[in-house]
Amino acid sequence: MVNLLDSHTHTIASGHAYNTITEMVSAAAAKGLKLLGITEHCVKMPGTCPLLYFMNLKVLPREMMGIEVLYGTELNILDFDGKVDMKPNLLRKMDVTVASLHIVCIDPGTMAENTRATIRAIENPLINIIGHPDDGRFPVDFDEIAAAAKEHHTLLELNNSSARPGGGRVNAAENDRILLEKCMKYGTHIILDSDAHWADDIGRTDISGPILEEVGFPEELIVNRSVEEYKTYVNRYRRE
Fold first, then answer.
1. What pLDDT score does 166 carry?
2. Domain segments of the chain: what residues?
3. Closest-CA residue to 142 (of 133, 151, 154, 132)
4. Fewer CB within a 10 Å sphere, N or C end of the chain?
């Protein structure tokens, strides 16, 4: 499959990533991507940028080095009702939004609680992508999540970093297989993201790609093959 985009990456502004915007865009262009999403961790993540950073994203160019660049945030889901750490008036100004459960921002609940938190985020029309739903520290009902994502036109992420050896997420590869099976059941679209915190990782699918092949996941349900289809999911274009 041709991979045209990477919509979940981080720069030094997130506090625990290691490249500038320019360096990340340069790496994406060198790899032949057509679109890059830069989604800094939102304000409840320790060490990340302040709210003012997100308020000022309007000054940044949306085209650099021949590729389109979208700017947004990886939100933290803060409770089991899907509350996130950015208010709607600013959230709707983000080009692209990812919402994720992070162990430093919320303690894992029961499967029912984690599932409810995720589905409430899916139901939020200003949230475009659910980040790394495969983290076994937050067990969820993948059947319910895939069904909700299909209904609300929200992308579920297959995160290339999740199953990386030495990573902190639990049972990610096994959970990815279950998630993909449920997405096939409902016809739910997914997005392949690198979650890159280092420029060389942009666009990588070396871990997620083999899992897709193993389960026989259909290419037509992967938005990375079409920038135009991807744009139907993200705030910058859905609000126009």
1. 85
2. 5-238
3. 133
4. C
